[in-house]
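[agent] plan:
  1. take the single chain provided in the ticket
  2. run structure prediction with default settings
  3. attach structure tokens to the ticket
  4. add a short note for the reviewer (M.T.)
[agent] executing step 1
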Amino acid sequence: MSTPSKIQLILGDITKLPADAIVNAANSSLMGGGGVDGAIHRTGGPAILEDCRKIVAKQGGCKTGHAVITTAGNLPAKFVIHTVGPVWNGGHKAEAEKLANCYRNALQLAVENGCKSVAFPCISTGIYGYPIAEAAEVAVAAVQSFLASNDSIESVIMVCFDDANFNAISAALAKH
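[agent] step 2 finished; step 3 output follows
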């Protein structure tokens, strides 16, 4: 199977996908928030927050570009991988590298936990203000690069909540 065919793109709600792991665009506190983070915590229920609290007690949250894994609670996935995307600062604070690390580190955690399918939201393109087209390029390049060097993941689903992100990911996939 070639790498591009391992990547699917859908417009929809990530909390409804029965993937082995869904990725949460979390904040560093891991205590839930708005956007996809709030939706995952609300839909998944208190088990996710309980696991996040244990992680915070052990290591003090999650740094930008890093990832941690928890139960998926009531979600149809097995795990939630929480990753903290960068806040956009004009591209002068290594935002692209930090964003790429979100995808790489989430995929590595998925491999380490036996996941074959992983669903990603668009990371940092909401309240964190990362320009959508640039974020899409980084996301697609990072995922394709990871898949090219690791065949454990069978399917990556890029889940877009709106047309702007969907069109940007679609364009990035067409270019690569």
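[agent] step 4 note for reviewer: The chain has a mean pLDDT of 95.
[agent] ticket updated
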